[in-house]
Amino acid sequence: MLLRNTSPTLSGATLGLALGFLINAVTPSIAHADAPLSSATNQYVDMCMNQATSIPAPYGEADLKGNPGLGDYCKCFGAKFAERAVASVQSGGKSTSSLDDTVKEEQAMRNSCRKQVGLPLLKFKP
């Protein structure tokens, strides 16, 4: 796949763009419609179940496709990512985190949910 044949820097940039796209896809509906946290959570759960499973690990959740624990994982994933997105909107979208810090935070959130549901943890190369 594309990410396998690129440098770590380019892979990180690609991941950043993909994550930025996903966050921006959910954030406008939160900001403009004043949707409650549960609505944002549902959007992230849907994204996890239907889109992230087509992105290869460690950048997506393709390794969980067809796994009976996927639904519970996505509920955890959705809650964590929605909470972070809502907090970002409430703070005006200003972040002092670097791309590397953001990627590490997201990896930790994903692995926290994987551990909670009893799924294999993702291994990331720095």
What can you see in these coordinates?
This protein is mainly alpha-helical and about 130 residues long. It has helices spanning about 10-35, 35-50, 70-90, 100-115. The protein is globular. The model is unreliable at about 1-10 and about 30-35 (pLDDT under 50).
List the SSEs and their pairings.
Elements: H1 8-33, H2 37-50, H3 70-90, H4 99-117
Helix pairs in contact: 1-2, 1-3, 1-4, 2-3, 3-4
Radius of gyration: 14 Å
Number of helices: 4
Number of strands: 0
Give the termini separation: 19 Å
* Main beta sheet: none
Element-by-element helix/strand order? HHHH
Shape: globular
**What portion of residues belong to β-strands?**
under 5%
Class by alpha and beta content: mainly alpha
Identify low-pLDDT runs. Answer: 1-11, 29-34
Mean pLDDT: 79
- Helix content percent band: 55-70%
